[in-house]
Model the fold of this input.
Amino acid sequence: MDIQVHINNVRGSQIAAKITGTFNIDGNPFKFQAIAFGRIGGHNIGAKISKTVEKNLIKLGYDIDAVINELQQKLVRGDITLPEGLTKDSFADG
Done:
């Protein structure tokens, strides 16, 4: 499964932040939201997708838990792209 993650917006503090963005799987874009505790590159991130996104992923043959796990891992590792003007240094720990 090849997932690319793009961050659209990050709001919050160094302790917790709300992240919105999109992820692409094999050329199919989907929206997500996440809560980061310890920020990207930090301790924990919980990603959520809508029921509509879940249904579309299932139609494409993807396992929802595997997709969310991979999405969260990429967010934690900082394996992401950012909008112009936002840098990882401005919101990531270490």
